[in-house]
Design brief:
The complex is a heterodimer of chains A (315) and B (254).
Chain A lengths: L29 H23 L5 H8 L2 H32 L4 H16 L2 H9 L7 E5 L6 E6 H4 L2 H27 L2 H10 L3 H31 L11 H12 L2 H30 L11 H9 L7
Antiparallel strand pairs in A: 1-2
Helix pairs in contact in A: 2-11, 3-4, 3-7, 3-9, 3-10, 4-7, 5-7, 7-9, 8-9, 9-11, 10-11
Chain B lengths: L5 E10 L2 E11 L4 E5 L6 H8 L7 E6 L2 E2 L2 E4 L2 E4 L2 H9 L1 E4 L11 H11 L5 H14 L15 H13 L5 E5 L7 H16 L3 E5 L3 H7 L2 E6 L2 E6 L1 H6 L4 H10 L1
The chains are: A mainly alpha (315), B alpha/beta (254).
Chain lengths: 315, 254
């Protein structure tokens, strides 16, 4: 707010006490109106060029938007995202707990994991998992260090494109999530653990009932970002035949040469997914900011309205 | 013969090279209200935190109600107690902190219920009833569904006291319970503590409130540089301190 509040005693030495003289006038802001007008113009022009461009083949876009093959790919993308995030978050919590543990070996193990999987490109990791059979042709259960095996499987039948994608995405995600979770754990006042310990709570219960719920407030927003990012990152698995949204779109345009139209079809679906995820993120944040009134992120409607309002006079 | 409520024997604690407690011997009988005073850095809070083993002493022993805290003794050697046994001991020793440390994600009522549910395994309905009674006892029945952030410091500290009382402790430790409060809120917390003292609770209070020490305290302990310099009935010590260091300290705070 731009108004300055003046107390009744601070009207100034010569301030007349008529209501008219005390009115606060807001200056016009011609620059803001000009910028808003220009922005609206550019947006309209962009929309128009896109709508009338004959090279974009909107009829093809409409035709394929709800195509069976595309929907199958969409379903794989959703499955991959949800499953990789679920495994990634679980791994992240475990590794973060290892990082704050008193045991040096647990801390070192966690550090090595984060160092390796955060330090190499995800694309390389995905190709690696897809070709894992070249290193380990068989996997089995049995006595480690070369002892007898109870059962063995051929790696190639076990690690399909989907499994390789899941392994690559979730293990990579775990490394990033562990850093997010660790930051959340650190943000909780150590006095909370002391108060809980003084009540006689066990370490497990302190973590579960006191520390983690408070850390969630810090953890949820970046995790939402990670989820939205993961929706799009899954498109990387197209290099290992992951059968996801982008892969099926590519397969289609390799046969009918409608490259741009099918990329638009895929992009529209990605936008739909990320929009839905953003709304979910809002409700999660609200849930975990209980007891921290000031940081509650307003109503969903208000937030959308704020972003949509082109010009706000005085906010 | 019943043992005293608290017994410390040559308790020592250091953080790195800094010796914070240099041999504390202290006996506290049942039902007493003991006030511990002294300049900051004298080891008062550390002494209190050793009593429920939030700090692990380097040497010496603490007995609460005749039970050795934090260790088991076998053949003259001390071994750390298993976690579960230590938790049982902590359960019976209430602690109130300077900065309250209420659980911010739970309402006042849920804060008081927390120990009952998570530690004692009381069914939710019973825990709710008992927590409501305790909030009523500290005069906050109408604030049961407020979150800590919506309460004043004095109200938060009263909830914290109720949270400790929910565990039915036999001993209550107060670590500067009014030091973080605005002056006008100190009284309401001290009133709750007076009621508690009148009910016969054994209390150890680290405090700067000399008025409380004189009115409510049965015993005053003056600490400086990790040792107990002087102890005795509060009125006597406050009126006629025997030791130079006590005199110097009291001349600053009275």
């Amino acid at each position: 707010m731009e108004e300055t509040v003046a107390g009744p005693g601070e009207a100034g030495p010569a301030g007349p006490e008529t209501p008219e003289a005390n009115r606060i006038s807001h200056p016009l802001r011609p620059g803001r109106w000009l910028a808003a007008g220009a922005t609206a113009l550019i947006l309209a022009w962009l929309a128009w060029t896109i709508a009338i461009n004959p090279n974009l083949h909107w009829d093809i876009v409409v035709k394929y938007q709800l195509d069976r093959v595309i929907l199958d790919g969409l379903w794989v993308t959703i499955q991959l995202t949800v499953a990789s995030m679920a495994i990634g978050v679980t791994l992240g919590v475990i590794v973060a707990l290892m990082q704050v543990s008193d045991s040096r070996i647990l801390r070192a193990g966690a550090m090595a994991y984060v160092w390796f999987f955060r330090g190499t490109p995800l694309l390389v990791q995905l190709i690696f998992w897809f070709n894992i059979a070249l290193i380990f042709p068989e996997v089995g259960l049995g006595v480690p260090f070369g002892g007898p095996k109870l059962v063995t499987w051929e790696t190639n039948t076990l690690v399909t494109g989907f499994v390789a994608a899941l392994l690559g995405l979730s293990i990579n995600e775990g490394a990033y999530m562990s850093e997010i979770v660790r930051a959340g754990l650190r943000a909780v006042d150590p006095g909370q653990q002391e108060a809980a310990a003084a009540l006689g709570m066990s370490r497990m219960k302190i973590m579960k009932r006191v520390v983690l719920p408070q850390a969630m407030r810090i953890i949820v927003p970046p995790t939402g970002n990670q989820f939205i990012s993961m929706l799009k990152t899954t498109s990387l698995v197209s290099v290992i035949a992951g059968a996801d949204l982008l892969t099926v779109a590519q397969r289609l345009y390799l046969t009918n040469f409608e490259v741009i139209a099918l990329l638009i079809v895929a992009s529209i679906w990605y936008l739909v997914l990320t929009t839905v995820a953003s709304i979910g993120q809002y409700f999660l944040e609200r849930r975990f900011s209980r007891g921290f009134g000031a940081t509650t992120p307003g109503t969903l409607r208000g937030r959308i309205a704020r972003n949509l309002r082109l010009t706000g006079s005085a906010r | 013969m019943t043992p005293p409520m608290v017994q410390c024997r040559s308790l020592r604690k250091s953080f790195g090279r800094l010796e914070v407690l240099r041999g504390i011997d202290l006996t506290i009988e049942r039902g007493r209200v003991v006030c511990v005073v002294g300049p900051s850095g004298s080891g008062k809070s550390t002494l209190l935190r050793c009593l429920n083993h939030l700090e692990e002493p380097q040497a010496g022993r603490v007995y609460v109600d005749g039970e050795l805290i934090g260790y088991s003794e076998r053949g003259g050697r001390l071994r750390p107690l298993p976690d579960a046994r230590l938790r049982r001991q902590r359960e019976s020793i209430g602690m109130v902190f300077q900065r309250f440390h209420l659980f911010p994600h739970r309402t006042a009522l849920e804060n008081v219920m927390e120990g009952l549910i998570a530690v004692k395994g009381v069914p939710t309905g019973d825990a709710r009833q008992r927590a409501a009674d305790l909030l009523d006892r500290v005069g906050l029945a109408d604030r049961a569904h407020h979150y800590p952030a919506q309460l004043s410091g004095g109200q938060q500290q009263r909830v914290a006291i109720a949270r400790s009382l929910a565990m039915s402790p036999k001993l209550m430790l107060f670590d500067e319970p009014t030091s973080a409060l605005d002056p006008e809120l100190v009284g309401e917390v001290l009133d709750v503590m007076k009621d508690l003292a009148a009910s016969g609770m054994t209390m150890i209070v680290v405090t700067h409130e000399m008025g409380f020490a004189r009115e409510v305290g049965d015993h005053l302990v003056f600490m400086d540089e990790g040792v107990i310099v002087e102890q005795g009935p509060p009125r006597e010590i406050l009126a006629a301190p025997q030791h130079d260091r006590t005199r110097a300290f009291l001349s600053k705070v009275l």
